[in-house]
Amino acid sequence: MPNTLPQVPRVTLGRSGVRSTKLALGSANWIGRVGDDAYTALLREAFRLGIRHVDTAPSYAQGWFAARLREADPPDDLLIVTKVGRYTRAGGGIEIDVDPQRAVRAVHANLDELGLDRLPVVMLHDARPDHWARIMAPNGTLAALHRLRAEGLVGAIGTAVGNGDFAAMAAESGEFDIIGSYHHYTLLNREARRRIHPHARRHNLGVINIAPFGGNILATGPVARARYSYREASPEVVAAVRRLQRAAAAHGLDLPTAALAFSLACPDVDVSLTGPTTIEELRANVAALEVARTFDAFDDLVSPVEHPNHWY
Q1: Which one, of 44, 53, 101, lies nearest residue 208 by Cα?
Q2: Share of the chain above pLDDT 70, in %
């Protein structure tokens, strides 16, 4: 890794006008894996390196995240992105609920938990095509979020989804300001290039590529019980990743750097969002910005066969 890390570029998320940075920090993978002090130190280092975008959600132990964020002395220009629609059940487990009134309650709860007067970006979390009618109804979830925006409580409205069909529908509709989706633009799967990015650019939407490591095999490599899209990877995916690892090494790159640089280099991706668990991983992510700027052989690295994420 170079001694001097590149600057993290500032970006604008399409028509929303929301200012961010090309790298963003996700909190989901840190919960339960990094202690309080180490997490606070990680945040401080991210801010020192120039990252100005953090991502959280009600189902990511958001109260814990907010406490660590306060301890890290966040900069005034930090963009805090949160979500509605995916919640932790009182008895444990996760539920997806796009009820409009619950979304309103969640926005108010997010404001309280994060200590904000306004949520600059609210993402609809893990919605599926069967939710579309309720979301888009005249008195549906999107209309409820628009009312909150008119009240000054919400800024841009976006998606953060693993379902590729929903992400494509949302992008094509032009009804959301920002399209965030995961595992649709990676070295293993480039469906976003066909199904999401063209519509997003046509409507001038912001694009956030969440989890470019594919959750998480492109970060770990083909280790025992490696996970793809947060499930144990199939033998076919493991074999593909072995090939990718060899191809990256032939160009002098490790697999995680190649995977992140691929996302960072895409002109249709505004923000690449990762969840490092150590300061070393964080610095390696920032170093990938220079690889994205200078490397010109990504076609040699991507899997010739796409591996869909099979999200619900």
Answers
A1: 53
A2: 98
Compute the half-sphere exposure of residue 175: CA atoms within 13 Å on the CB side of its CA. 18
| Number of residues assigned to the chain | 312
What's the CA angle centered on 158, arms 147 and 190, to 5 degrees? Answer: 160
- Measure the CA–CA gap between 124 and 144, rounded to whole angstroms: 12
The token pair that represents 20 in the structure block:
């961010």
- Scored b (16 or more CB within 10 A) or e, 146-169 reads eebbeeebbbbbbbbbbbbebbbb
Please give the backbone phi and psi of residue 100, each rounded to the nearest 5 degrees, phi first.
-60, -40
Q: Which of 195, 187, 138 is nearest to 161 (CA)?
A: 195
- 208-252 residue pLDDT tens: 999 999 999 999 999 999 999 999 999 999 999 999 999 999 999
In this prediction the pTM is 0.97
Instruction: Reply yes or no on whether the pLDDT at 3 is more than 80.
Output: no
Q: Give the type of residue at 75.
A: P
Q: To the nearest 10°, the Cα dihedral for 260, 262, 263, 266?
A: 150
Q: Are 263 and 185 in contact (CB under 8 A)?
A: yes
The answer to whether the CB of 171 falls within 8 A of the CB of 138 is no
The whole-angstrom separation of Cα 116 and Cα 101 is 20
Q: What are the tokens at 100?
A: 């409009």
Instruction: Cis check for the bond before 216: say yes or no (omega within 30 of 0).
Output: yes
- Write the single-letter amino acid at 185: Y
- Across the range 23-50, mean pLDDT stands at 90
What structural domains does the chain harbor? 10-294 (3.20.20.100)
